[in-house]
Write a structure and sequence with these properties.
The complex is a heterodimer of chains A (112) and B (851).
Chain A lengths: L4 E6 L7 E7 L2 E9 L5 E7 L14 E5 L2 E5 L6 E3 L15 E7 L2 E5 L1
Antiparallel strand pairs in A: 1-9, 2-3, 3-4, 4-8, 5-6, 6-7, 8-9
Chain B lengths: L1 E5 L3 H12 L6 E6 L20 H4 L6 H4 L3 E4 L3 E5 L4 E4 L4 E3 L2 E4 L3 E3 L12 E3 L3 H11 L4 E5 L3 H12 L3 E5 L12 H13 L2 E4 L4 E6 L5 E5 L4 E4 L1 E4 L3 E3 L2 H5 L10 E3 L10 E3 L4 E3 L7 H16 L16 E5 L2 E7 L9 E7 L4 E7 L6 E7 L5 H9 L34 E3 L4 E2 H9 L5 H8 L9 H14 L16 H10 L5 H8 L8 H13 L14 H5 L2 E2 L5 E3 L10 H13 L3 E4 L5 E6 L4 H10 L12 E6 L13 H12 L8 E6 L13 E5 L4 E5 L11 E7 L1 H18 L6 H6 L4 H9 L7 H13 L4 H6 L2 H5 L16 E4 L2 E4 L2 H5 L14
Parallel strand pairs in B: 1-2, 1-7, 2-3, 7-19, 9-16, 10-11, 10-16, 11-12, 18-20, 32-33, 33-34
Antiparallel strand pairs in B: 4-5, 5-6, 8-17, 13-14, 14-15, 21-22, 22-25, 23-24, 24-25, 26-27, 28-29, 29-31, 30-31, 34-35, 35-36, 37-38
Helix pairs in contact in B: 1-8, 10-12, 13-15, 20-23
Classes of the chains: A mainly beta (112), B alpha/beta (851).
Bound molecules: siroheme, flavin-adenine dinucleotide (FAD), iron/sulfur cluster and FE2/S2 (inorganic) cluster (FES).
The site of iron/sulfur cluster (SF4) has 13 residues of chain B, from loops.
């Protein structure tokens, strides 16, 4: 399957340090905007599907950091997923996919 | 090995627990329990009168007997013992063989042979059945008398007084509690107790009980005096139940009691006696702690061979501290200065009614005993000094004299205690064990209690346990453990103060001033909750939305399939038919599952995030407000119908519950808060299971606090009684704000209270007597929250920016087609994974978007 960059929305449409869900080719992608203390804004993308609960909810979790990792906590049972890699910190056997994401000219783009 | 235990009282049960905990014995245990229920906490028996049930008092962890295959014969007593055949015959006619027999039959209340003692309305105070009979009689009585002014007699007098009876105590000796305290202490105790409305008669010898003229009975005394009363409770001492032992030729003492050695063995090597029926070294111990020690010794002896390796019972300290009708009374060691050469120091404050006495050795170097009445703060310290032979300071009087500034001096730090010092005598826990548990991670009083069992029985050791906890935490540099998370090196309480004092209103400001990193799912909701408690701003602004816990994030409760439930506020459970119809119409229109909640309101389930603003704008238009079912916030005020309709109601409980709910709605707290208001003592609103419970009285309202249903039910405790409306609200204001200030994250008021040093008395001091001088400040803080209330769903549906956040997809309309329902009992429910895998599966179509 080929991967393509998809235009999703304007950066401003995502509130700082929150996530949104985008529907791309019938997949649900959770996209997070992280504003760092130094003023840098980063975008991350992982699956919206939470493998622990089976619900499509990861975009609605609280983001933050645990040590060096930038993570989101699932709103259902609170497992943490590494936004950069999709690893699940509590249960390594149930990771999610992560996707390349970037800000280009004020627009958020994801490679799916 | 076949073991029979006769008696399933406090000590007998402790023995069984200790025995099954021994690794090296394969025992086949039978317990003969004469009472109709298994072991319960006799020490707390009086709590039965303040609402504790037989279940609350049970000492048996659920499933205990089954799990350890112990054969419990309820309602079956032992009738005789045959030592040659090694059998016990039961009252059910069965004959059972044993290898080892343990007698734990306790004692019975002694009733002096007074003519008329068996009249109806005469009781003893020993079992739950005794109390049930007393309660029934109390309801038909006006006057009650306790014969016996000892420890138990006074406890019983309190029970009678709580039943609203005119209460008398009749004592043969010249003073109350003659065994434990001296003349000076007895005088202070007497006047304190008389102030509480109990009449005390000393040096009164009852010679006869006959029918009364105005009451059920008339008591006649040796000095010619008479007293009329409706009920009489005998509390004139206890006698060991040694009848089985006597009958089978086991040695008993002159004044009763089964003679045992240091291993609690009787004259027959295969028979043990423990608890109040046992006579060790010529003494009977009428307290539970020595009985527990005997149980441990007997269990270890039976389990170990050779038995001389087993621990020995070497006597026990009989010091006691108790609160009798709110009066502290303590007696330590040689209270009567009976030791040769003993010297005493006495301090009396007749105005405050405090009496304190120290008894020291002749040279003043060691503490031998003490009596404390009216204030027993020093009990723990003094007891430890005596037990551990800690050298007294050169002026021991300062241990009991108030300091010049009115504060009592602290006598000795816990650091001075050796590791072997027994801190909790009920459960035999030493200082060393406590310190080890702290080192292993028990950093709250609650955790420490759970792990070590210390302070879980009579509770007398709790202040000392707390001190040790604190000292040990400090020593280990352990304050680290209450840090909220890796981003903030502060406890929730400290963060609260930083926010309030520094007037911090955003997470960025809090993080840059006091924290590090990005924050996480622990500290963000904590901060959000603190901001809301302090400033009560809208929770979904651009800078606050990201902090909210999953449910607050969408102002609804997330469900297992990612949909949400909607719970509008139905204050006090009161709702008009029109509003009910609106709820029905909305539910129908959006295809939602409806259910009445346990909190007297209606829950609508199965909405997707993007539907929430539409649904809520309809509800808001119809006059509904958010119910905060999603928040760590004020949830519901449950009400009963009260005096408006109910023939028993004495106050308008519905109006009061509406007042309370509308006053505190929107208040966010460390955990959810539930209230209830009942219109009379029948308590149909179950107020005593709530964080704040209000029960109507003839004169006003009784305020109960810190109750809990849920996983670990806890009865609420009476904070103040007969309050008028204004004072009631004033105390609730103070209580809630004090809790919000000082509680930990996700700590319900019940758990907070269990960890509150100083307990209920301290809470009363702070809330009712305003001992910290915080009252006005707490009320002002509450006023700010009350005045700034805005329904957050109303605010949300009126704010287009906020509404945008509820879209399911940022780049497309519509909902999540992974959400599928099936129909059950005429409503929707989420399809299970198994159902969805079936090839023929067809879910109920998600209802079309409304026009
Ligand atoms: C809806 C409801 C059950 C029902 O269908 O009746 C309910 C549902 C939930 N309860 Fe409850 N509780 C509901 C009444 C109760 C009651 C009864 C009451 O309030 O009188 C209790 C026991 C009383 C108490 O709290 O002391 C109760 C004790 C709990 C507990 C245990 C709390 C504790 O301290 O032990 C939890 C777990 C927690 O809070 O950590 C809980 C948590 C929950 C959660 C939030 C669990 C979750 O995270 O998903 C449930 C989601 C609510 C939702 O989706 O709407 N629920 N829950 C009731 C809503 C009442 C309302 O109108 O707001
Ligand atoms: C109201 C009250 C308050 C108290 N307060 C305190 C306190 O604050 N601190 C303190 O340390 N102590 C207190 N005590 C004393 C404490 O309860 C006792 O020391 C303790 O219960 C003794 O335990 P035990 O197992 O020896 O006797 P019990 O608890 O009396 O148990 C003996 C059991 O054996 C059963 N039994 C007797 N004969 C037979 C038979 N033949 N067959 C089968 N079963 C039989 C009895 O029915 C009973 O259930 C209090 C006691 C009372 C009544
Ligand atoms: S608590 Fe009292 S007033 Fe309220 S409904 Fe029950 S009986 Fe009636
Ligand atoms: S001394 Fe009774 S509980 Fe610790």
């Amino acid at each position: 399957m080929s991967t393509l960059w998809h235009d999703v929305c304007g950066v401003d449409e995502i509130w700082p340090n929150t996530g949104v869900c985008a529907r791309i080719d019938n997949r649900q992608i959770a996209i997070f905007r992280i504003d760092r203390a130094d003023g840098a804004t980063e975008i991350f993308a992982i699956d919206n599907h939470d493998p622990h609960s089976g619900a499509n909810v990861l975009s609605r979790g609280i983001v933050g950091n645990l040590g060096a990792r930038t993570v989101v906590a699932s709103p259902i049972y609170k497992q943490h997923f590494d936004l950069a890699t999709g690893d699940c910190l509590e249960e390594p056997s149930l990771p999610v996919r992560s996707y390349a994401a970037e800000i280009n000219d004020g627009r958020v783009r994801v490679c799916v | 090995m076949k073991i029979i235990v006769i008696g399933n009282g406090m000590v007998g049960h402790k023995f069984v627990e200790e025995l099954v905990a021994q690794q090296n014995v394969a025992a086949d245990v039978t317990v003969l329990c004469e009472e109709p229920r298994p072991a319960y906490d006799r020490v707390q028996l009086s709590a039965f009168f303040s609402g504790k049930t037989a279940d609350d008092l049970s000492l048996v962890t659920p499933g205990f007997f089954e799990q350890h295959s112990v054969d419990l014969k309820l309602g079956v007593g032992a009738k005789s013992i045959d030592r040659t055949l090694k059998t016990v015959t039961t009252t059910a006619g069965e004959t059972l063989g044993y290898d080892k027999l343990v007698i734990a039959t306790g004692s019975y209340p002694f009733v002096p042979p007074i003519p008329g003692k068996d009249r109806e309305g005469c009781f003893v105070y020993r079992t739950i059945e005794d109390l049930e009979a007393m309660t029934a009689c109390g309801a038909r009585s006006k006057v009650g008398v306790v014969i016996g002014g000892g420890l138990l007699g006074l406890e019983c007098a309190k029970a009678l007084r709580d039943m609203q009876l005119q209460t008398h105590v009749v004592e043969f000796a010249p003073r109350l509690m003659a065994v434990q305290i001296d003349d000076g202490g007895g005088r202070v105790l007497r006047s304190k107790i008389e102030q509480l409305g109990v009449t005390v008669h000393t040096q009164k010898n009852t010679v006869e009980i006959v029918a009364g003229d105005h009451c059920r009975h008339k008591m006649k005394f040796a000095d010619g005096a008479e007293l009329e009363t409706d009920m009489i409770v005998f509390s004139a001492g206890i006698r060991p139940r040694d009848e089985l032992a006597r009958a089978c030729g086991l040695g008993v003492g002159e004044r009763g009691g089964i003679i045992v050695d240091n291993h609690c063995r009787t004259l027959d090597d295969d028979i043990y006696a423990i608890g109040e029926c046992a006579l060790w070294s010529g003494r009977i111990f009428g307290l539970v702690a020595p009985g527990y020690e005997m149980a441990r010794v007997a269990a270890k002896t039976i389990a170990s061979s050779p038995s001389h390796d087993a621990p020995q019972f070497t006597g026990a300290d009989m010091s006691t501290k108790l609160k009798l009708m709110g009066v502290d009374v303590a007696s330590i060691g040689d209270a009567h200065a009976a030791t040769a050469g003993a010297r005493s120091y006495v301090f009396t404050d007749e105005r405050k009614q405090i009496y304190k006495k120290l008894v020291t050795s002749e040279d003043g170097s060691l503490l031998l005993g003490a009596v404390l009445v009216g204030d027993a703060t020093e009990y723990g310290q003094l007891l430890q000094m005596m037990l551990n032979h800690i050298a007294l300071p050169s002026s021991p009087e300062f241990l009991i004299l108030p300091a010049a500034d009115g504060q009592t001096r602290v006598g000795l730090g816990v650091d001075a205690l050796p590791g072997s010092a027994q801190i909790c005598s009920c459960n035999n826990v030493t200082k060393l064990q406590l310190c080890e548990a702290v080192g292993a991670g028990c950093t709250t009083l609650g955790a420490l209690k759970k792990t070590t069992q210390a302070a879980t029985s009579c509770g007398g050791c709790a202040p000392l346990v707390t001190q040790i906890l604190k000292a040990e935490m400090k020593r280990l540099g352990h304050s680290v453990n209450n840090h909220v998370c890796e981003h903030f090196a502060y406890s929730r309480q400290e963060l609260y103060h930083l926010v309030r004092v520094g007037r911090i209103e955003t997470f960025d400001a809090l993080l840059s001033k006091h924290g590090s990193g990005l924050g996480c799912d622990i500290c963000k909701p904590v901060a959000a909750s603190i901001f809301a408690s302090c400033w009560n701003d809208y929770v979904l602004t651009r800078d606050k939305a990201a902090l909210q816990d999953s449910n607050d994030y969408f102002l609804a409760n997330i469900q297992k399939n990612g949909t949400y439930s909607i719970v509008p506020r139905i204050a006090g459970g009161e709702i008009t038919p029109d509003k009910l119809i609106v709820l029905g119409q909305v539910a129908k229109k959006y295809g939602l599952y409806t259910k009445i909640t346990g909190g007297q309101r209606i829950d609508l389930f199965g909405a997707q995030a993007h539907q929430l603003p539409q649904i809520w704008s309809e509800l808001v238009d119809a006059g509904f407000e958010t119910g905060h079912a999603y928040g760590k916030a004020v949830r519901t005020v449950k009400s009963c119908v009260g005096s408006t309709w109910c023939r028993f109601g004495v106050q308008d409980s519905v109006s009061m519950s509406l007042t309370i709910e509308h006053r505190y709605k929107g208040l966010r707290a460390p955990h959810k808060l539930k209230f209830a208001v009942s219109g009379c003592t029948r308590e149909c609103a179950e107020a005593q299971s709530k964080d704040v419970g209000v029960i109507a009285t003839e004169k006003g309202w009784n305020l109960y606090v810190c109750g809990n249903g849920g996983m670990k039910p806890r009865h609420a405790e009476l904070l103040a009684g007969d309050l008028d409306d204004a004072t009631l609200l004033q105390y609730i204001d103070r209580f809630l704000m004090f809790y919000i200030r000082t509680a930990d994250r996700l700590q319900r008021t019940s758990v907070w209270r269990d960890n509150l040093e100083g307990g209920l008395d301290y809470l009363k001091d702070v809330i009712v007597h305003d001992s910290l001088g915080l009252g006005a400040e707490l009320e002002a803080e509450m006023a700010q929250v009350v005045d700034s209330y805005v329904c957050e769903w109303k605010r949300t549906v009126e704010d287009p920016e906020a509404v945008k956040r509820f879209r399911t997809f940022i780049n497309a309309d519509g909902g999540d087609d992974n959400v599928v329902f099936v129909e059950e009992r005429g409503q929707i429910r989420p399809a299970t994974a198994a159902e969805r895998e079936r090839p023929e599966f067809k879910g109920v179509a998600v209802v079309a978007e409304p026009a």
